[in-house]
Amino acid sequence: MSIRTIMLIMLIAGTVRAVQASQYVSLWPLPQKVKILDLSFKLTSFNIVDAKESSAGSSCSLLQDAYRRYYEYMFGIAKRQGPRKSRLTGPSELTELQVWITSPDSECDGYPSVTSDESYELSVDLPYAVLKAPKVWGALHGLETFSQLVYEDQYGAVSISDFPRFAHRGILLDSSRHFLPLKVILANLETMAMNKFNVFHWHIVDDQSFPYLSRTFPQLSQQGAYHPYTHVYTPADVKMVIEFGRLRGIRVVPEFDTPGHTQSWGKGQKDLLTPCYSGSKPSGSFGPVNPILNTTYDFMSQFFKEISTVFPDAYVHLGGDEVDFTCWKSNPDIQKFMDQQGYGQDYKKLESFYIQKLLDIVTTTHKGYMIWQEVFDNGVKLKPDTVVHVWIGGGANEEMGKVTAAGYTTILSAPWYLDYISYAQDWQKYYKVEPLDFDGTEEQKKLVIGGEACLWGEYVDATNLTPRLWPRASAVAERLWSAKDVTDINDAFNRLSVHRCRMVA
Amino acid sequence: VAAANFGRYTRPKFNLVLLIILQLSLHTVEGVWPLPQSFTSSTERYPLNPKAFYFGYGRQSAAQQDCSVLDAAFKRYFSLIFPDYTSDNLSVSAGQASLNAETVWGALRGLETFSQLVYQDDFGTYFVNKTEIDDFPRFQFRGILLDTSRHYLPVQAILKTLDAMAYSKFNVFHWHIVDDPSFPYQSRTFPDLSSTGAFHPMTHIYTQSDVRRVISHARLWGIRVLPEFDSPGHTQSWGKGQSDLLTPCYRGSTPSGTFGPVNPVLPSTYQFMARLFKEVSSVFPDSYIHLGGDEVDFSCWKSNPDVRAFMQKMGFGGDFTKLEAFYMEKIVNITSALKKTSIVWQDVFDYHERVMLHIWKGTPASYKEELSRMTKAGMRVLLAAPWYINHIAYGQDWRNYYTVQPLNFSGTEEQKKLVIGGEVCMWGEYVDATNLTPRLWPRASAAAERLWSDEKQTSSVDEAFPRLQDFRCKLVRRGIRAEPLHVGHCKHEYQGV
């Protein structure tokens, strides 16, 4: 029985209607332009090579690594299953995929950025298939697409021209509510690449634990991690994540969320958090980062200096969400400061005061910053290249309108909180989201650079991360990559079912 | 509350006493789950030396060396208790613990409890506190349902689930083995059923030896395997390999090409069922068999002229429930003759004595009413309705499973005795080996305690939380991919992917 029939039969499991073959076979996300012709080829003693004219050669480890990886994906399964009888008739044999980086600067040894060119063209035809891309980032995506065609066992003549609709296509993982062992982070990066995601938003620390081992302030994780040896990310671990991501065209954007969400920071850094008061005496508990002490800003300077050297991406995410003012209100020194500054009872002004100083600090490290929407909503003065992250459900559309009207680039997460699980096929509601569905001009809509699927960690760790995130995040992947009019949910179901089995394999 | 001797096994009861006297140090073991009926422990603790520790048969024990169940259990529990220790050097130690049980099944439960009492300090030394435990289950029947038709579950996944069941003292594996989407059970008598009805005739089937493996693995854990061959509904996959079994649906006066439930009017149906159940009752040694009987859609029967004619002949009028009851009774007679007691879903409100009802529908209001009604009619019942844990939701939904009160319905004491137990159901529409384990555990463990422990002692969700969290870390340590309850960490995290 052919593999294809096997796959189709396997997929009738647990679904209301049977999976049918899509005319786009099982490509996911759907490329911008696909033309599949009726000829079919046999792949024998196949090779992936650099085209003669390519600006990237054998010294480009990013591509060489990828060739090996994709070869294993495509033919590894076949090898494990033993030699098959060839079912395809016809004398045409395809022996080679040539990869041709057309731009003089392939960016092979560089890091991906929000402005990277991720486009590619794939043409599968005799005598050899050709993958053309201006930069290596497009080549990586083209290899993924090619491997999806081969998996389907129906590698016919194909002509594909592809590029992403949105430049920022991210996944947020939370390694503070639960520690995530390195293996699961790396496996997730692998799966992201199969879905053409290109940003790993690493929400690395928060209230519950501080697993990031800082060179400058090692006591942060010493005191703040769930366990100082077994539940930390060493500098080597972090390097590994960054490089593993780079080789897959994935940016690693760290988030160090302040002034709220910082309970774990205070364990290793005394005086960083605001002491809360019960009447006139300290209560023993602590609140957000203390915005009135100079030591706070000295600390942040040194800390973010380190972060800017450890993480090569052009952006850091600074958080700024859900700041609870009750502790600040209770503290007499803060009350005095508020009076001095003339803020009255408006603690949003104090929050903005802190954020402003923080943003200025981060600017000196030559990084752009991303912030959660509250920072924008509270009227903080932001640099023009700030990315505003819209996450609050209910009213997200208006927010998108407001943020873009103010001229800031924005990314959308509000409808894509994948940690909110529910029974049955909820991937459909993620698929149906249209990020540009808000009132605004064409210019405004251009400021929406993409979105992120968030998997907050309150109920997630290595035991259930992978099945909880995938394939539901794949729905978001297509929404962010494919054209706006790719909305046929039935066709999506057919392709996604196969794509899911492919990811399992 | 537990009923009298029942099924194959006597009620497992055991007590556990630890007598060694050594140093004093403060530690409380959180995660003993389910909570034993009577549990006294002190802070006095004793170190355990894996080199010197061994399980032995007491001199007065009716079971001795060569008792397969206990020999295997000793070996298994040794590595569960000392996960860092790999050799099995045995010699005599100074102190002694004693575990008394009426049967080996009780001993298994006691070994599980003992294994949960042992803990390690930060340096890796093993300890157990001075403890005295008297334990027995509140309910006899504590089951987990797995559905291997909506998705095929590899045998390994089933065996792993059995292991995890034993850790929570579940004792029945309800194997919903076939259904509409696929027929993976490879029948000796009717091999076409799986060769045409399985998702794949080679890779997605359970051979006779697979089934034997599951049954023997379960037996060594003290777990019964209850097979379910659901009919007359839920049988689409049966029709592929057994033509004429299913009712042909009609559109007007011609067959439409589709098929409905099992055809209750043909004698060939009952000949087939008799042969199939003869095989099933010899393959599966448990004295119970689940016949299904749920969600029968009458529209196809209605459309078929032969069925309508039969209805006339039998004087059923337009009442298809009578036809369904007619069919079910014939099947129950078949299985009765094979000396099996039948369990059916509540849809079949029958009156046969060798029948037990499985209540699965609805909100507390409706299932409580059903419990009252069924027990009033003198029927024994199993409760599944509040434990459909395939219905996932955001947050700590384990609390809903924990706070179920199975006997909180209006009825006499006698009636309440007819509630034999309950079952956690993990239907397979959205579940396969990629997500079965984290979806099942530790949420099913919440139900496990409800079915084993004393309700008064286990009514506080707040008290249960730290224990269940700790127990969950134990499961992870044992290689069970149990998902987290809430924020936090385990000393030993899950290292797989």
Automatic annotation (TrEMBL), chain A:
Pfam family, one: Glycohydro_20b2
Enzymatic reactions: a ganglioside GM2 + H2O = a ganglioside GM3 + N-acetyl-beta-D-galactosamine; N-acetyl-beta-D-6-sulfogalactosaminyl-(1->4)-alpha-L-iduronyl-(1->3)-N-acetyl-D-6-sulfogalactosamine + H2O = alpha-L-iduronyl-(1->3)-N-acetyl-D-6-sulfogalactosamine + N-acetyl-D-6-sulfogalactosamine; beta-D-GalNAc-(1->4)-alpha-L-IdoA-(1->3)-beta-D-GalNAc-4-sulfate-(1->4)-alpha-L-IdoA-(1->3)-D-GalNAc-4-sulfate + H2O = alpha-L-IdoA-(1->3)-beta-D-GalNAc-4-sulfate-(1->4)-alpha-L-IdoA-(1->3)-D-GalNAc-4-sulfate + N-acetyl-D-galactosamine; Hydrolysis of terminal non-reducing N-acetyl-D-hexosamine residues in N-acetyl-beta-D-hexosaminides
Keyword Secreted tagged: no
Keyword Cell cycle: no
Active site positions: 322 (proton donor)
GO cellular component annotations of the record: cortical granule; lysosome; membrane
Localization (cell): Cytoplasmic vesicle, Secretory vesicle, Cortical granule; Lysosome
Residues covered by the Beta-hexosaminidase eukaryotic type N-terminal domain: 27-149
Ranges of residues in domain Glycoside hydrolase family 20 catalytic: 166-483
Keywords associated with the record: Cytoplasmic vesicle, Disulfide bond, Glycoprotein, Glycosidase, Hydrolase, Lipid metabolism, Lysosome, Signal
Designated name of the protein: Beta-hexosaminidase
PANTHER family: BETA-HEXOSAMINIDASE (PTHR22600), BETA-HEXOSAMINIDASE SUBUNIT BETA (PTHR22600:SF38)
Native species: Sander lucioperca (Pike-perch)
Signal peptide annotation: 1-21
GO biological process: carbohydrate metabolic process; ganglioside catabolic process; glycosaminoglycan metabolic process
GO MF term set: beta-N-acetylhexosaminidase activity
Superkingdom of the organism of origin: Eukaryota
Automatic annotation (TrEMBL), chain B:
Tagged with keyword Glycoprotein: yes
PANTHER family reported for this sequence: BETA-HEXOSAMINIDASE, BETA-HEXOSAMINIDASE SUBUNIT ALPHA
GO BP terms in the entry: carbohydrate metabolic process; ganglioside catabolic process; glycosaminoglycan metabolic process
Keywords, in A-Z order: Disulfide bond, Glycoprotein, Glycosidase, Hydrolase, Lipid metabolism, Lysosome, Signal, Zymogen
The encoding gene: hexa
Signal peptide: 1-31
Subcellular location: Lysosome
Quaternary structure, from the entry: There are 3 beta-hexosaminidase isozymes: isozyme A (hexosaminidase A) is a heterodimer composed of one subunit alpha and one subunit beta (chain A and B); isozyme B (hexosaminidase B) is a homodimer of two beta subunits (two chains A and B); isozyme S (hexosaminidase S) is a homodimer of two alpha subunits. The composition of the dimer (isozyme A versus isozyme S) has a significant effect on the substrate specificity of the alpha subunit active site.
Entry similarity comment: Belongs to the glycosyl hydrolase 20 family.
Entry's Gene Ontology cellular component terms: lysosome; membrane
Organism of origin: Sander lucioperca
Top enzyme class: hydrolase
GO terms assigned for molecular function: beta-N-acetylhexosaminidase activity
Record: active site: 295 (proton donor)
Protein name: Beta-hexosaminidase
Top-level taxon in the UniProt lineage: Eukaryota
Catalytic activity: a ganglioside GM2 (d18:1(4E)) + H2O = a ganglioside GM3 (d18:1(4E)) + N-acetyl-beta-D-galactosamine; a ganglioside GM2 + H2O = a ganglioside GM3 + N-acetyl-beta-D-galactosamine; beta-D-GalNAc-(1->4)-alpha-L-IdoA-(1->3)-beta-D-GalNAc-4-sulfate-(1->4)-alpha-L-IdoA-(1->3)-D-GalNAc-4-sulfate + H2O = alpha-L-IdoA-(1->3)-beta-D-GalNAc-4-sulfate-(1->4)-alpha-L-IdoA-(1->3)-D-GalNAc-4-sulfate + N-acetyl-D-galactosamine; N-acetyl-beta-D-galactosaminyl-(1->4)-beta-D-3-sulfogalactosyl-(1->4)-beta-D-glucosyl-(1<->1')-ceramide + H2O = a beta-D-3-sulfogalactosyl-(1->4)-beta-D-glucosyl-(1<->1')-ceramide + N-acetyl-beta-D-galactosamine
Pfam families for the chain: Glyco_hydro_20, Glycohydro_20b2
Function: Hydrolyzes the non-reducing end N-acetyl-D-hexosamine and/or sulfated N-acetyl-D-hexosamine of glycoconjugates, such as the oligosaccharide moieties from proteins and neutral glycolipids, or from certain mucopolysaccharides. The isozyme S is as active as the isozyme A on the anionic bis-sulfated glycans, the chondroitin-6-sulfate trisaccharide (C6S-3), and the dermatan sulfate pentasaccharide, and the sulfated glycosphingolipid SM2. The isozyme B does not hydrolyze each of these substrates, however hydrolyzes efficiently neutral oligosaccharide.
Domain Beta-hexosaminidase eukaryotic type N-terminal: 89-117
Glycoside hydrolase family 20 catalytic domain residues: 139-454
InterPro entries: Beta_hexosaminidase_sua/sub, GH, Glyco_hydro_20_cat, Hex-like_dom2, HEX_eukaryotic_N
